[in-house]
Amino acid sequence: MKRVVVYNSKTGFSEKYGKWIAEELACKAVSYKEITQQRLKENDVIIYGAGIMAGKISGWEKVKKMPELNGKKLILYAVGGMPMKAEEAILTVKDNNLTKEEQKEIPFFYLEGGINFEKMGFIPRIMLKTMYKVMKKKKEKTQQDMEMISLFEKSSDNSSKENIKPLIICAKQI
Predict the structure, then answer these.
(1) Looking at the predicted structure, is the pLDDT value of residue 149 above 90?
(2) Which residue from 57, 60, 64, 130 has the fewest beta carbons nearer than 10 Å?
(3) Other C-beta atoms within 10 Å of 149: how many?
(4) Could you tell me the superkingdom of the organism this chain comes from (predicted)?
């Protein structure tokens, strides 16, 4: 089986994971902006990964509609700032991006990245800063609120090569 990793990265975390995954699978990692129809056609397994904004995986809606992917095995990874243990939030991301039918066919993995305010676009940066202010003012904060406040305070990188192990196992079993 020939594989390719396609990443859509704005702040660097999805690219970092894409390159780690490609290294482990001995295949190519290609930016979404540089992917060609030919490269998609010549691979049996397409691993797509991107960051999350407002619960959606960047570029996924366009990617999954590409005719070149018909008959291909897809694997999806989402990269975000929330911790790997935020299971409820991760399930919400999965449900926001894959229908119940797609969830049966497309393996989904969440990979904790971080927040890079310096590379983030203006609108996302303002959205996160606003969320931070709202959560900070909240009178009764949950543990998850406290974790999110801590996460939004400054740029951070929590990515780890360890996080890709389940995805690598899945990709090798295809």
Answers:
(1) no
(2) 130
(3) 16
(4) Bacteria
Q: Which two tokens stand for residue 143?
A: 């543990």
Q: How would you classify residue 114: left for phi > 0, otherwise alpha for psi between -120 and 50, otherwise beta?
A: left
**HEC sequence for 62-128:** HHCCCHHHCCCEEEEEEEECCCCCCHHHHHHHHHHHCCHHHHHHCCEEEEECEECCCCCCHHHHHHH
Question: Among 26-30, 48-52, 75-79, 135-139, whose mean pLDDT is lowest?
Answer: 135-139
Distance CA 144, CA 148 (A): 6
Exposed, middle or buried, 100 (CB in 10 Å: 0-12/13-18/19+)? exposed
Q: Is residue 147 scored above 80 in pLDDT? A: no
Read off the amino acid at residue 44.
Answer: D
Q: Which two tokens stand for residue 110?
A: 């969440």
